[in-house]
From TrEMBL:
It comes from the Bacteria. SUPFAM superfamilies: GroES-like, NAD(P)-binding Rossmann-fold domains. Residues 22-342 form the Enoyl reductase (ER) domain. It holds the Pfam family ADH_zinc_N. This is NADP-dependent oxidoreductase.
Length: 344
């Protein structure tokens, strides 16, 4: 066994304490001390430095996981998700070494025993290891593989202040979009999207002015591309505003996923299928693992764009595992801008 000194025998982790009645709050989680096993053959011990707080946990906690490639969470289960950490112990013959920085899916704990095959070593392609938790791969894959952004396109990004949307606007611009429009619920976030991230206009969902009216004013000639993380009335309005041949890439459905009236696994929306037919629209959902070459391509371009200053990684760092449940509640309440990362 190759190790670094003073290996821990326990790990602090976040567990689901109870099934929420509606949206989860801090009371539904517990920080516990759990025994930490010695890595077996094919496993490594990782000290986590960062892990991602992401809205998909709402679906896993709600238990509506039909078609989702992740298991439901029951009371007593430890949460999990993307993390960046340092390998601190490996069995003999492991391809990894103590000191290697890796990404894996055993976040929400300070140490994790992980299958070596489930760890991805990170080099220096990104200037900061925490940037490996950025959610830009979904936006990049959807905009390049499904929507095929073309020079001069008008692009609408819903949920533009979230982890995907704060990267999607810049990605669309770098791919040649002529006008980029975003949506958010917060006037403060709308200002930041324009001043910091280069959105041409931002629409406010939930305002007194109907969303479809706002969209018609912001894109009087219609939209060519939709990058949708929300669904609901915003997707409905986008169909009405689409130009002939518009391409819609759906990467999320937060209108249903984060609804207190639902369990996180459904998001109904009314679609005018007549308009879809006569306008020749395409609507496709994007799965992050397909095609498999997107992640490597995105990471390379993301690193280049970060170093050149053409893109940034908007995120909030929350210090300490004890604050992780509060960070999840705040994310669901829409109180953060960009990605939310717990720093250990």
């Amino acid at each position: 066994m190759s190790v670094t000194p003073s290996l821990p025998r326990t790990a602090r982790e976040i567990r689901l304490a109870s099934v929420p009645d509606g949206l989860p709050t801090t009371e539904n989680f517990a920080v516990v001390e759990a025994p930490l096993p010695t890595p077996a053959a094919g496993q490594v011990l990782v000290r986590n430095h960062f892990f991602l707080v992401f809205p998909g946990l709402r679906t896993l906690i709600g238990g509506e996981v039909d078609g989702v490639p992740l298991p439901a969470l029951s009371p007593g289960d430890a949460l999990f998700g993307p993390a960046v950490g340092e390998v601190v112990a490996v069995p003999e013959g492991s391809p990894l070494r103590p000191g290697d920085t890796v990404t894996h899916l055993q976040g929400w704990r300070d140490h994790a025993v992980v299958d070596a095959a489930a760890c991805t070593p990170v080099g220096d392609v990104l200037p900061d290891p925490v940037a490996h938790l950025a959610q830009g791969s979904s936006a990049y894959g959807a905009l390049t593989r499904l929507a095929g952004v073309r020079a001069g396109d008008t692009v609408l990004v819903t949920g533009a202040a979230g982890a995907v949307g704060t990267l999607a606007g810049r990605i669309a611009r770098l791919l040649g979009a002529g006008r980029v429009i975003g949506t958010t619920r917060s006037p403060g976030k709308a200002g930041r999207l324009v001043s910091e991230l280069g959105y041409d206009a931002v629409l406010l969902s939930g305002s007194e002015t109907p969303f479809a009216v706002q969209l018609a004013a912001a894109a009087p000639g219609g939209i060519d591309v939709l990058l949708d993380t929300v669904g609901g009335e915003q997707l409905t309005a986008a169909v009405g505003a689409a130009r002939p041949g518009a391409r819609f890439a759906l990467v999320g459905a937060l209108s249903g996923q984060l609804s207190a009236r639902r369990a996180g696994g459904s998001a109904p929306a009314e679609i005018d299928t007549f308009r879809v037919v006569v306008k020749g629209l395409s609507l496709r959902g994007y799965s992050g693992g397909d095609p498999p070459d997107v992640e490597q391509e995105w990471t390379g371009r993301f690193g280049e764009w970060l170093r050149s200053g053409e893109i940034t990684f908007p995120h909030t760092r929350v210090p300490g595992i004890d604050r992780a449940p509060q960070a999840l509640q705040e994310l669901i309440e829409g109180r953060h801008f960009g990605a939310v990362v717990v720093e250990l």
